[in-house]
């Protein structure tokens, strides 16, 4: 059994670049296997991946693990998803990240390097061994599983501005509107927390609308009987978790 859909390339690109519905872009923030690529999707999707890292860093605390980062990225497209209320495994995000950790690392390695070069990210460990993030990760894994390794984040207002500037323009426009400024070029945030809260609210609403639309589409596509059977299986998994 496969779940499948058909989408126009124009709509796909719009969602990747602007998070218009945050449905396809959310899928592509997780590891996928591309069979045939006539679009050079990897290059186009790099904008989406950078924005996902930026959004997640706005929501993370000062210190976090590499797994925490990928879990936060993965959870972006589930925030507000109606299915998560009653029809999804509560540990779904953790299972996705732990089952495909190396793939997440390969996907997001260039952006960790980029943000480290901008001095937005650093590293620390329980043994006070310092170095760049990626070599530190490799070093900590070789020594012992009990070693605590953390990525450290610059939580200053200037750093928050850099992260917000990497978000899609439609998201920045809504943030500007919600914070009292009508122009995305005049976006002014008074605190990192304010920007994070506003962004999270916008993403939650987009995911909620998309998930409701998708649920209706699923029922129309597969029929009421098959749809209810599928929903029942999902709900059983949710209750077990």
TrEMBL record:
Its EC number is 2.7.7.41. InterPro entries: Tam41. Pathway: Phospholipid metabolism; CDP-diacylglycerol biosynthesis; CDP-diacylglycerol from sn-glycerol 3-phosphate: step 3/3; Lipid metabolism. GO terms for biological process: cardiolipin biosynthetic process; CDP-diacylglycerol biosynthetic process. Keywords: Lipid biosynthesis, Lipid metabolism, Magnesium, Membrane, Mitochondrion, Mitochondrion inner membrane, Nucleotidyltransferase, Phospholipid biosynthesis, Phospholipid metabolism, Transferase. GO terms for cellular component: mitochondrial inner membrane. GO terms for molecular function: phosphatidate cytidylyltransferase activity. Its cofactor is Mg(2+). It comes from the Eukaryota. It is a peripheral membrane protein. The keyword Transferase applies. Its main location: mitochondrion. Pfam families: Tam41_Mmp37. It is found in: Mitochondrion inner membrane. Belongs to the TAM41 family. This is Phosphatidate cytidylyltransferase, mitochondrial. It comes from Ficus carica.
